[in-house]
Design a protein that fits this description.
By secondary structure, the protein is an alpha+beta fold. The protein has two domains: about 110 residues; about 90 residues, Alpha-Beta Plaits, CATH 3.30.70. It is about 30% helix and about 30% strand. The chain contains four helices and ten strands; from the N terminus they run E-E-E-E-H-E-E-H-E-H-E-E-H-E. The strands form two sheets. Strands 1, 2, 3, 4, 5 and 6 form a six-stranded antiparallel beta sheet that branches. A four-stranded antiparallel beta sheet has the order 8-9-7-10. The longest helix has 22 residues. The radius of gyration is 19 Å and the shape is elongated. Its main location: other. Keywords: Gas vesicle. One of its GO terms (cellular component) is gas vesicle.
């Protein structure tokens, strides 16, 4: 694909002082990831033939895989993730967007620098009787001092006691893992579904216009 004749699909925003470039299976058949930079922020992009990509399961997974690959680059890069579907018709259009949102992106990059998102769901075993409030307090006492931030997610099932996302410093990851394992051992009638690391979707709220 030619970088001069196609649109730019954006995966996320990084510190522009250290651009990235690598080959991988990317959205819509692209195979090259690179950076479009403006004043020390960089959009991680690939080339795409449309500004309105269809969100197939395969491409949604490729989007997440690219974010994960960035996060594992050079011992751990921080990236402000974009939702699927952010595509722009040219470098110029994209740089105009970066220019307008630059202060918000700089704040977001600083907030998540050196951190990852981890998820925890606590599920009550069928027919088990547990004190939801006591469980919530115990998990908070164990995990909140380690995490930089946390946010609640929907309790979409009657058996879900807790569903939270945590923003954790990479250096605290092992401590956090151990704390979750200790909680797991403590409660026989609960299942702990611990996931991640993810790009920190739950802890950034930068909206940019797409399909431009």
């Amino acid at each position: 694909m030619s970088k001069t004749s196609t649109n730019r699909y954006v995966y996320g925003i990084i510190d522009g002082d250290e651009p990235v470039e690598f080959e991988t299976d990317a959205v819509a058949g692209a195979d090259e990831i690179y950076t479009v930079s403006h004043r020390r922020i960089g959009a991680v992009v690939s080339d795409i033939d449309t500004t309105d990509p269809e969100e197939t399961d395969e491409d949604a997974q490729r989007h997440d895989d690219v974010l994960r690959e960035i996060m594992e680059t050079d011992g751990g890069r921080s990236i402000v993730p974009m939702q699927f579907g952010m595509a722009f018709e040219s470098d110029r259009t994209l740089k105009n967007v970066l220019r307008g949102a630059r202060p918000a992106f700089r704040r977001a990059i600083n907030d998540i620098d050196g951190r990852v998102e981890l998820g925890l769901k606590v599920v009550r075993d069928e027919d088990a009787e547990v004190d939801d409030a006591a469980i919530d307090d115990a998990v908070a006492d164990a995990l909140e001092p380690i995490a930089a931030q946390s946010v609640p997610n929907d309790l979409f099932s009657d058996r879900l006691v807790l569903n939270r996302s945590y923003l954790v410093d990479r250096d605290e990851r092992e401590t956090f893992d151990d704390a979750v394992a200790d909680l797991e051992e403590e409660y026989d009638d609960l299942t702990f579904r611990y996931t991640g690391p993810f790009a920190p979707y739950s802890f950034v709220d930068v909206k940019i216009g797409a399909n431009q």
